[in-house]
Amino acid sequence: MRTAVLTVSTEVVHRRREDEAGPLLAELAEAAGVDVDTMEVVPADFDLIEDRLLTYVDEGFALVLTAGGCGLEPEDIVPEATLSVIDREVPGLAEAMRAEAMRHAPTGALTRGVSGAAGGTLIVNLPGTASAVRELFPVLGPALVPAVTSMRRARGLEPGR
């Protein structure tokens, strides 16, 4: 299943901190049965995020996982960029991650990530810390392959391509 991992962090782009969430997300996704073909880091810029997501959709990626940009700070615009790209939401994935986040901390309810379909591509937003990815991926991982397979078959696309 052709997958892209997109980390959104101006801090990482400017080398003020390391990207720990993106590589961990890729590792966990591969363990869940997907093939991570590309990993990128972009700053918190709406047009750039939207462009990268649209490019992944146009290139036929089955799955795009984002890390970062889902909080309450003004630069946390990944959900808005994702909503501008998707055709329809798949709210259960985001709801499951929020519920799991709240089991770890009351502030877990504050994550604003969304999930949705853009053509034959499933896009899922995750928080940008390695600890949050580690805590939340277990509720997401088992649903990824079945969700993408179902979505792509319904559109007459190969499930994994």
Description:
- The protein has 161 residues and is an alpha/beta fold.
- The protein has one domain: Molybdenum Cofactor Biosythetic Enzyme, Chain A, CATH 3.40.980.10.
- The chain has helices at 10-13, 21-31, 46-58, 78-85, 91-104, 130-154, and strands spanning 2-8, 35-42, 63-67, 88-89, 115-118, 121-126.
- Helix 3 (46-58) crosses helix 4.
- The N and C termini lie close together (6 Å).
Query: How many helical elements?
Result: 6
CATH level 4 superfamily: MoaB/Mog-like domain
Question: Which architecture per CATH?
Answer: 3-Layer(aba) Sandwich
Structural Rg: 14 Å
* Intertermini distance: 6 Å
- Strand count: 6
Please estimate the helix content. Answer: 40-55%
Quaternary structure? single chain
- pLDDT < 50 runs, ≥5 residues: none
User: What summary fits the major beta sheet?
Assistant: 6 strands, mixed
What's the rounded overall pLDDT mean? 95
Attribute tags:
6-stranded mixed sheet, molybdenum cofactor biosynthesis, 6 helices, Molybdenum Cofactor Biosythetic Enzyme, Chain A, globular, 6 strands, MogA/MoaB family molybdenum cofactor biosynthesis protein
Summarize the structure.
InterPro entries: MoaB/Mog-like_dom_sf (IPR036425), MoaB/Mog_dom (IPR001453), MPT_Adenylyltrnsfr/MoaC-Rel (IPR051920). With 161 residues, the protein is α/β, with parallel strands linked by helices.
Task: Give the arrangement of secondary structure elements.
Blueprint: E1 2-8, H1 10-13, H2 21-31, E2 35-42, H3 46-58, E3 63-67, H4 78-85, E4 88-89, H5 91-104, E5 115-118, E6 121-126, H6 130-154
Parallel strand pairs: 1-2, 1-3, 3-6
Antiparallel strand pairs: 4-5, 5-6
